[in-house]
Design a protein that fits this description.
globular; 14 helices; 12 strands; alpha/beta; 5-stranded mixed beta sheet; Nucleotidyltransferase, domain 5; single chain; 375 residues; binds magnesium ion; binds adenosine-5'-diphosphate
């Protein structure tokens, strides 16, 4: 019998709410329905304003935003259930990642904030909701990120081929899945699309560069690339995770100024593609020289220039999207949070201490009971 879970994800790109309905009754998850619901423009504006200047947001404004995001997640969940021709009572649970507004996991009081009050999701949908996945791992000494490697391992590890899974969202993270052993590793490599989006939005129409077309007309600026690669994050050993607090437009503009020569906007865009490709490829090759297949997911899988550069830098390994391997690249992360919700409800850990740096494995998240259980 089918066991339906629903995953809700909005990453650092804040491009929309990815909602998937999945049947998790078997060994391999089955995708039943998936759709990205755009954020209402006013909410998206507030998300970006809060991320850019968290100190300008009062507690009252934060409370309002948290509730409004929760309502938007709930609406996406209900719309997805309806579109999948199911009823909310048939969904065992929702796994809601929330919208990251702040990520500062290092230090004795590490902290990461995913907004979108799950009380509203459980109340509006009536479905039990698991949320706040990151902070228990941080409390156990981890980065709280990345959390997708356990799902990547379950879905993509094989004894025949050494693989790396690359998730290119706003930030990029890798999971290394060697063919011969169970020990896996993974970490955030740095910016994925976040700087590309910010630069495109500033100089062109639209929030991202479709297929990387604009960047393909530019040339890599070596001085600028060197400025960008000099950031200490790239050589810092894992465990590590990062966010917009570190890699943002202000940092990029400061690096451009330091570069000592003018760089045309289109060349900046092309250099940013190179930065993402280089930092991902270097990270993979530094830890796993024998990797044979690189499977790419997240929105960056649609950037043709980025995919070509990854293929060049990682040759002779095969670089492909996850689609031919069983799951479309747009839905891997939301599916992971549906699966993590199932792990939580069944009392199983969701973090991998070797990845996050936590002292031990933990059951992730908080459970907000749906109406069915309460009645
Ligand atoms: N057709 C495309 N061409 C180039 N880039 C794309 C395309 N579609 C999506 N993207 C990029 O992917 C990003 C969204 O990726 P996503 O995996 O949803 O990231 P996040 O998890 O941060 O929300 C967009 O902001 C954009 O930069
Ligand atoms: Mg997204």
């Amino acid at each position: 019998m089918a066991e339906y879970y629903l995953g809700l994800m909005s990453g650092t790109s804040a491009d929309g709410i990815d909602a998937v309905v999945a049947d998790l009754s078997g060994r391999i998850p089955r995708l039943v329905f998936a759709h990205t619901y755009p954020w209402p423009a006013s909410l998206r504006k507030k998300i970006f304003a809060t991320i850019a200047n968290p100190g300008n947001v009062s507690l009252a404004e934060f409370g309002d935003l948290d509730a409004a995001l929760g309502e938007a997640f709930a609406e996406a969940a209900v719309a997805a259930v309806t579109a999948a021709k199911l009823h909310c009572s048939q969904i065992t649970a929702i796994g809601s990642h929330g919208q990251t507004l702040f990520h500062a996991p290092d230090g004795p009081r590490g902290f990461s904030l995913q907004a979108g009050d799950a009380n509203h999701i459980a109340e509006i949908s009536g479905i039990t909701t698991v949320a706040d996945f990151r902070r228990r791992d941080i409390a156990a000494g981890g980065q709280g990120a990345p959390l997708v490697p356990a799902f990547h391992q379950m879905l993509f590890q094989t004894p025949d081929v050494s693989r790396a899974i690359v998730n290119i969202g706003g930030m990029a993270n890798i999971t290394l899945l060697p063919k011969h052993c169970d020990t896996i590793s993974g970490f955030d490599t740095g910016p994925g699309n976040v700087l590309l989006d910010a630069w495109h939005e500033r100089h062109r129409h639209g929030s991202y560069d479709p297929e990387g077309a604009w960047s393909s007309g530019g040339a890599v600026s070596t001085p600028l690339l060197e400025q960008l690669l000099a950031h200490p994050y790239f050589t810092q050993p894992p465990p590590k995770s990062t966010g917009r607090e570190v890699f943002c437009r202000a940092w990029l503009e400061e690096r451009i100024e330091h570069c000592g020569q003018p760089v045309a906007p289109v060349d900046v865009q092309r250099t940013l593609v190179e930065l993402t490709a280089r930092t991902i490829a270097d990270a993979i090759l530094h830890y796993e020289t024998e990797v044979e297949e690189i499977l790419v997911c997240g929105g960056g899988a649609h950037n043709e220039v980025l995919m070509l550069r990854l293929a060049d830098l990682l040759d002779p390994a095969i670089v492909e999207s996850t689609e031919p391997y069983g799951l479309h690249p747009d839905w891997v992360e939301a599916m992971a949070f549906a699966w993590l919700a199932q792990r939580t409800l069944t009392g199983q850990p969701g973090n991998i201490p070797a990845v996050t740096g936590a002292r031990h494995s933990v059951v992730l998240g908080a459970i907000y009971t749906g109406r069915r259980e309460a009645s």
